[in-house]
């Protein structure tokens, strides 16, 4: 599944799932563009180290995914964009009648609108190159729902719907668009929540993992960022040439319930 000669832009990729996907794409030979809203020495060092590790070109470009013009500027600044991974996302939990308007707007902008802006900017480049892969990181919540997550669920359902539209618009071209729908993934952010949740509910960390975090994940095991990255590499490969407009669940059986 060599991706040598391809350039991948991964939004929200200086940590967690985005970085895991970037690493696996680089392992497959793709040049990678990392992104987040910060612009620190550590961000650029992360890209440099990734490039050295896998022997590929790796850059970091700052862009705020809550702003449409910066989303589009990211793609233009990247130059080439053979592979686009729309991964940037945030979460906030609240009853719908108490949901803060600024949090709703931010989640819709970052989780859904950014995928629209980046895709709109990337498609002309893919058409010029004669090849393209768009991978949207949706969620199990793009296929089902949970209480108190109205903005996140709405945004992820929107991403799944947009995935299908883009696939239909590019169906006769050498471009595909698919969505990965992870369940709970073991990231530093999730791991950091476990001790606090254990203290809050007076539970052991093992109980928190099984009964709270993975309550709806039948495998009772986290997916890994490497597994999500490997799924993205597959979707970018020749083997997935006729896979477009669909979702791939990496959720330990969550959406089978």
Automatic annotation (TrEMBL):
It comes from the Bacteria. GO terms for molecular function: 3-hydroxybutyrate dehydrogenase activity. One of its GO terms (biological process) is monocarboxylic acid metabolic process. It holds the Pfam family adh_short_C2. InterPro entries: 3-OHbutyrate_DH (IPR011294), NAD(P)-bd_dom_sf (IPR036291), Sc_DH/Rdtase_CS (IPR020904), SDR (IPR050259), SDR_fam (IPR002347). PANTHER family: 3-OXOACYL-(ACYL-CARRIER-PROTEIN) REDUCTASE (PTHR42879), 3-OXOACYL-[ACYL-CARRIER-PROTEIN] REDUCTASE FABG (PTHR42879:SF2). Belongs to the short-chain dehydrogenases/reductases (SDR) family. This is 3-hydroxybutyrate dehydrogenase.
């Amino acid at each position: 599944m060599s991706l040598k000669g391809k350039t991948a832009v991964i939004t929200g990729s200086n940590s967690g799932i985005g970085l895991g996907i970037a690493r696996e794409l680089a392992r497959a030979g793709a040049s990678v563009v990392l992104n987040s809203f910060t612009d620190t020495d550590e961000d650029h060092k992360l890209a440099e180290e990734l490039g050295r590790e896998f022997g590929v070109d790796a850059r970091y470009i700052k862009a705020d995914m809550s702003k449409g013009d910066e989303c589009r500027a990211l793609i233009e600044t990247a130059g080439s964009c053979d592979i686009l991974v729309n991964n940037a996302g945030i979460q906030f939990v609240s009853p719908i009648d108490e949901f803060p308007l600024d949090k709703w707007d931010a989640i819709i902008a970052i989780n859904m609108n950014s995928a629209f802006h980046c895709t709109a900017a990337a498609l002309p480049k893919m058409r010029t190159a004669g090849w393209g892969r768009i991978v949207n990181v949706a969620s199990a919540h793009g296929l089902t729902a949970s209480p108190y997550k109205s903005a996140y669920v709405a945004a992820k359902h929107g991403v799944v719907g947009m995935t299908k539209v883009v696939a239909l618009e590019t169906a006769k071209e050498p471009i595909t668009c698919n969505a990965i729908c992870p369940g709970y993934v073991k990231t530093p952010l999730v791991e950091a929540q476990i001790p606090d949740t254990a203290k809050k509910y007076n539970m052991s960390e093992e109980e928190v993992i099984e009964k709270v975090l993975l309550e709806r994940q039948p495998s009772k095991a986290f997916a890994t960022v490497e597994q999500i990255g490997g799924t993205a590499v597959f979707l970018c490969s020749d083997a997935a040439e006729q896979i477009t407009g669909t979702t791939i669940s990496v959720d330990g059986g969550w959406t089978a319930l």
